[in-house]
Design a protein that fits this description.
This protein is mainly α and about 280 residues long. It has 13 helices and no strands. The longest helix is centred in the N-terminal third of the chain and has 31 residues.
Amino acid sequence: MGNDIRERLRDLTALTVVVIFLLPILWWGLTSLKPVWAIFNKDETIVLGFVPSLTNYVIAIGEGGPDALSARATFMNSMIIAAGSTIISVGAGLMAAFGLTRLGLRSARRWIGFVVLLRMLPPIAIIIPGVMLSQQVGLFDTRLAVILIHALMNLPLAVLMLLSFLEDVPREVDEAAYLDGADSKVLFFRILLPMIMGGIAATATLCALFSWTEFLISLFLSVSFRTVPVQLSILSMGAWGPLAAAGTLAMLPAFCAILLLQRHIVRGLTLGSLR
């Protein structure tokens, strides 16, 4: 009886937490479907007493509205930056994780500690050197500069997550591959990579999400173009309908990716402690 009550309290607590976190998101999505009069009604809060409209979404993707409220170009910029930084960080992270776990480096644990320290570095700490370096090499106000900085910030996360997935592969697999005549290249590309594809997908998803939602670096390194977070901060100047629509569109890919890969993401973030 006591266990049954505890389970019900646990489920009720979990449901309450989910509702608390989802309610603002649901309200945001509801606002994106409201007409202007329902959003700015001073007499009462309009919840369902309106006809849903996709006008705000049409404006947000750049059709039938002012260019200042269009987020089409910013979505393209964010997709290019997120894809580029993810490819670099995951590719470099795979090679680093393989070297730390499979090549028998004596100082591997020391390097892993260094990677953890790098992950603790806040983005604001590299803004000034990042801006100065990008200006000196002629990359300031380019997507490539933002891609490289985002990749640098995501690299420690990629290394730590991929380390946990590679360490889950038994060393007997390596021994069997070497007995069959395989070298390190064959072991890495043809044996280990197919075995941790779920972990690679989860790592790439998190790196892409962090790049997609990053604000400060994108703000200071870009002048002639904007990313989604920077554009949303500009739209917040009273254009609540297009802002809600653009924000909802920006959240949907992240929500779907996390929903599909949640098991691998949790395992990676807990460094393999959860199976």
